[in-house]
Every structure is written in structure tokens, then in C-alpha cells.
Amino acid sequence: MDFSDVVGFVDIPGSKLVPYVAELVNCAGGINGSPVEVRVAEVGDDAALATQELLDWGAHFLIGPPFADFALPILQTTGGQVPLFVAASTEPTLADASINSYLVSFDDYGMSEAAARWALDQGITRAIVFTEGEGIPYTGVNPDAFIAEFEANGGEVVSTQTYVWAADTDFSAQVNEIAGISQNNEVVFSAALAFQVTALRGQLEGQGLDGLTYVGTDALDATGIQVEANNEGIAHTPHVSISAGDRVDTLLAGYEAAKGEALESRGFMPLYVDSMFVGIQGILDCGCADPAGIGEAVKQLSGFEGLSGEITYAGTNGIPPKAVPINRIVGGEDVLVATIGD
Length: 342
Fold this sequence. Notes:
The chain is of the alpha/beta class and 342 residues long. The protein folds into 2 domains: 8-106 and 245-257 and 267-311, Response regulator (Rossmann fold, 3-Layer(aba) Sandwich); 108-238 and 325-340, Response regulator (Rossmann fold). The chain contains 11 helices and 12 strands. The protein has helices spanning 8-27, 47-57, 68-78, 108-121, 141-152, 172-179, 194-206, 218-222, 247-259, 269-286, 291-299, and strands at residues 62-64, 84-86, 101-103, 126-131, 156-162, 187-190, 213-216, 235-236, 304-306, 309-311, 324-330, 333-340. It has a 4-stranded parallel β-sheet. The protein has a 3-stranded parallel β-sheet with strand order 1-2-3, sandwiched between helices. Strand 1 (62-64), helix 3 (68-78) and strand 2 (84-86) form a beta-alpha-beta unit. It is elongated.
């Protein structure tokens, strides 16, 4: 797991929840009588070393951080022989079943295409898109996918603006340009963080553009759009739409009661649990404890009912074809308003 400021907001709580779920499994007698053992290693500055330590310990499969800078050294160390589930990742380049590397979620294309289709379903035909640049992982790929889907289905991108992800909050130059072309009826899309989207919205509203619709990626869920000021009406693509009393909410409430702390990035947590259970399902299906054999079984997995939805790897390159929830802040509450691809 990567505990840095860049990824720690998902990997830290994920690394706490997986051992907790293993405790629950073991309290119920384990899997076919065998206990589930979890060891957490922080990648720090040397993902390869952390990986080797886990392999020496005897790991049957690995759950890894979401970005390539650490995931690729992990894969180099395993030589593609040990299944790696990049739990919170949507980066399509990290999925490669031939080297046992799997996403547990939809990818950038899936969620941004879903966002584009949702906007079009609302009758919105004009878009303003913020990007860090074409082809840049996550901050460019998501806008690229949104633009392609939006335009392919009759929409028009009237303005494309650049910004610095996780840094910019002054959008005055972009806002001035947008004010010159906006009809105050566009959808504004980006992969920006929650505080950036609300800052941008405030500046656009300061120019009188109060009729815009805002939709973003899973970054909004991870960075707390639910509690941001001026968030009403903002839509996003969470991995799981959680409602009070459902099984994810119940699990997270149980963790809080048992451990005395609430986990952040709630919508991402089912991905970590599913990573563990998919790996275990591979062990059950192959009837073996050999990582390569487990990987072969995972490749054939179909219709696995996880906390984050149905997971299928059979016939894919390691990206499960999952439906994408669309949540929106309505009356101050984060509610499911559509499911794209269901």
C-alpha cells in the first residue's frame, strides 16, 4: 500500500479494512476451515523491496496501490506470476491478465463515457472540459474519454481548458475565456478534486454562470464532494453508491464500532474487500495455493458478486465490465440518480 499524500487517502483506510474483514472471516471459521492471513507492507520509496518481503512471507496474491509508479515495480518483482489487484485504480494500462494484473473497478474510459452519456441524457448538448493534457494518465485520459463519447453522440465541446490537478484553485483566466462563449447551459467536466471543482464553480457563478451542470470522476468521491460547500447539484461517478443500512454501510459501521474510527473514502472501500475475496475465490477455484495457478483461475472468473458489484474477468484483459453509478448532491444528500451500463 502507498501511504503517501497522493494515494494515502484510499490506501490507508483500505489497508485497515482488509485485515478487519479477515478477522471477521476467521471468527466465522475461516475459508473451508483455513484462516485468512493478511500482511500489510508500505511501499515507501521501494515498492520492489516491499513486494519481495511479501513474497518471501508467502503471499498467494497481492493488493496494490492504484498508480503505475508503484504498481509497475511490483509487477516487475512478481515477474507476472503472482496475481496483483490494483484495488482503487481506474488506469487501463495497469490491467493485463497475461501478467496477472487486474483492475477491480471500471476504468477511466468506463466512468468518463458514463458521465458523458448521463449529461446527454439530461438534454445537455454543450460541454466545457478541463484537462491536464491529452493522454496524461487519469487527468488527461478521463477528459479524452468524455470528449470522445460526448461528441460521438451528438454533443459539442465548446471549450477545453487546462489546469494543474490537485493544485489550482484560481481559475480566473479560464473563467474569463469561458464567460465569452458560454450559453449558461453547458456541462462542466473534469477529473479534478472536490475543492477544485467547488472553487471553479464559485468563480463561474461570480460571472453570472449559474446554470451550468457539473460532473466529475471518482476523485470527487475520494476527496469529499459530499461535505464541500456549494456542492448542491454536482454529480460524480463513485465506485459504489452507499445508502444507509445497506451492506457496505453496515460493514463500515461495524469497523467503526470495533476499531473506534471511521474510515475515509467510503466508496472505495468495497474495492479492497473485493480484491481479497476475488483472490480467495481464485484459490478455491483452482484448489491450489500456487500463485500462478490462482492467477489462471482468476482469469476465468465470471459473475462474482462482490461488494462493489459483479466482477467478471473471463474474456477480458483484466478490466471487469461493471456498471457505473452516477451520484448527485440533491438537497444536501449524496444520492444515486442513474446507473449507466446496468
